[in-house]
TrEMBL record:
Catalytic activity: L-glutamyl-[protein] + S-adenosyl-L-methionine = [protein]-L-glutamate 5-O-methyl ester + S-adenosyl-L-homocysteine
Protein name: protein-glutamate O-methyltransferase
Keyword Chloroplast: no
Domain of life: Bacteria
SUPFAM superfamilies: Chemotaxis receptor methyltransferase CheR, N-terminal domain, S-adenosyl-L-methionine-dependent methyltransferases
InterPro entries: Bact_Chemotaxis_MeTrfase, CheR_C, CheR_MeTrfase, CheR_N, CheR_N_sf, SAM-dependent_MTases_sf
Keywords: Methyltransferase, S-adenosyl-L-methionine, Transferase
Length: 260
């Protein structure tokens, strides 16, 4: 009965939201959602679903739990140093008008990190910088650009001084950065992607999907890149056969689309 309850929950979520929970690793997803369901006092997933359809805040909490909104500025700093010191300068030598996408951007730390790097290199104003996420709550936080001090612990000190305004334990992102990022809602597994990107950053999200869903996503990302464009993935998301997607390893966790 418990399995049938969860399967019906998956079916109803897909019917009402286009979110297909069957494409996520079931054990991880079920464990997280069971914890939330019991915490909120619902004995079955169907009663939980019915409550979510009436309570927007509960639905947003479900989305937040499902998408694991954990993000920091400059997460894994040595990887961002490569973006800053190697890849962005290489791209700017070829073309000053870049097109960049932060996919599954959570609460905005990642696209704002990109914006800082671009601003330092005098390229922010000419760059088209997109960011997307499935979670409206996360996107609302991203647009506000207000973060706890722990989120900025890896940001270089000169960048903190230049691009943030401190207010107690909180840090406000500068208006220059906020204006430069175009945030929008997007379901990676369902929606179509734009194309012609120089850089796509999608980190620490793909690990939650099934192998079949990962395969579809990598194909979609590869098609969205221009020849020579880069896909930057998370530290646990190595692509073992990038050639099948017309990609090749450029550095650890960076994959370049063939064709240049």
């Amino acid at each position: 009965m418990e399995d049938q309850d969860f399967l019906l929950f998956i079916k109803k979520i897909k019917e009402h939201t286009s979110i297909d929970l069957a494409l996520y690793k079931e054990a991880q997803m079920k464990r997280r959602l069971t914890t939330l369901r019991l915490k909120r006092g619902y004995n079955t997933f169907i009663s939980f679903f019915e409550a979510m359809m009436k309570d927007k805040e509960l639905f947003y909490e479900f989305l937040d739990r499902m998408t694991i909104n954990v993000s920091e500025f400059w997460r894994n700093p040595n990887r961002w140093e490569l973006v800053e010191q190697k890849f962005i300068p290489e791209m700017l030598k070829r073309n000053r008008r870049l097109k960049i996408w932060s996919a599954a951007c959570s609460t905005g730390e990642e696209p704002y990190t990109l914006a800082m790097i671009l601003a330092e290199q005098g390229a922010l104003a000419e760059t088209s910088l997109h960011a997307s996420d499935i979670d409206d709550g996360a996107l609302e936080k991203a647009r506000k650009g207000l973060y706890l001090d722990r989120s900025v612990r890896d940001v270089p000190a000169n960048y903190v001084k230049k691009y943030f305004k401190q207010d107690g334990l909180m840090f406000h992102v500068s208006e220059e950065l906020k204006k430069s990022v175009k945030f929008q809602k997007q379901n990676l597994l369902v929606d179509t992607f734009d194309s012609g990107y120089d850089l796509i950053v999608c980190r620490n999200v793909i690990i939650y999907f099934t192998e079949e869903a990962k395969h579809v996503l990598y194909q979609k990302f590869a098609k969205a890149l221009k020849p020579g464009g880069l896909l930057f993935v998370g530290s646990t998301e190595q692509i073992f056969s990038p050639g099948q997607y017309d990609l090749e390893a450029a550095e650890t966790f960076f994959y370049r689309k063939k064709g240049v």
